[in-house]
Specification:
Elements: H1 8-29, E1 149-152, E2 158-160, E3 165-171, E4 188-198, E5 201-213, E6 220-221, E7 226-230, E8 240-247, E9 255-256, E10 268-276, E11 287-292, E12 298-302, E13 319-325, E14 327-335, E15 338-346, E16 351-357, E17 362-363
Parallel strand pairs: 10-16
Antiparallel strand pairs: 1-8, 2-7, 3-4, 3-6, 4-5, 5-7, 5-8, 8-9, 10-13, 11-12, 11-14, 14-15, 16-17
Amino acid sequence: MKPPQLTRWQRIFAAALIFLGLSGILSRSAPYTAPQPTPTPTPVTIELIPPPTLPAVTEIVPTSIPCPNAECVIVTPGPQPTPLRFALPTPGDEPVSAWRPPLYPVPWALSEFDHFYFERPIAADNVNWPLPTYRYGGVFFADVTHSGVDIPADPGVPVIAAGPGTVIWAGWGLFSEDPTNEKDAYGIAVAIRHDFGYLSEPLYTIYAHMRSENVTVGQFVSTGDQLGEVGDTGYTTGPHLHFEIRIGKNTYFHTRNPELWVAPSQGWGVLAGRIMDSSRKAMHQAPVYIRALDTTREWTVYTYGPESVRPDDYYNENMVISDLPAGRYRIAIQYGDANNYLTVQIVPGQVTYFSFRGEHGYSRDLPLAPIVPVPTP
């Protein structure tokens, strides 16, 4: 049976119903949502709290006070509002220079009691001056007083004899006097007994912390002969050469400051001083501030001690700084509630000496000549 035929108007009406039905289904499956405006964020208020106001600190700057007289000796008494201190920058290590003047030829002694008898144990093509932060008489490892100077150098740099003499020790065990002790504080070391002395006493030089030695006991060496190589054996924090001068006996307790014995660079000099309290008692580990007036370069040197080191037989010093270019320098020492100043002239090739005695201030008078015992015939 055939389906009934629809008229033209019936077909148009049916198509309209189908279209409206489909539109309703689509509108229900995906409803239209109008876009919403983006909300404006609420501003956040940050309250800035200013830091507390610190009380003013009064600084005492040595170089800001003019010298009222030619000697530049100033004593400023009276209580201070804050603990007394010098507003000086902390000096760093000695700058490594590619060039320095050559050393004076040894032996060198322009004044009667100076004794620059030795060349330096490191050649001039390397750093051959002492580490400024750990000088003779300094205290570092476990309150042990430093009995020599340390010369920073790379491993393998040649160590040379500072003067002619006979090798009396080569290898391990110098400090403990046990050649089998490979835990000795000095590591591999060489000791030389020189063929000249001072004040009728024998002289010795010590070269420690080497990585190897090139000489044997009984061997005679000349100035500049290679003894071994720089290393870091023994008690050390890194490669360097520990260098000592000994007088009278070859022991740790008979050392002297090498900076008074090795030749300075030509045109340069050495400063030595004895720093005491008002009762003439030597001050230990007291800072001494030094400023070059021509270049404004600064150093800090600490006085010796209190143990295991010996002053020079003539200067009786407890502080030394070598390698100072000739010129004018200002010394600053604090004592009690006072700052004390002195201007000195460093003379080429010589030791410049001063003393300080607490409330009595400075003196540039040279010490009395030492009494040398006359040998009994």
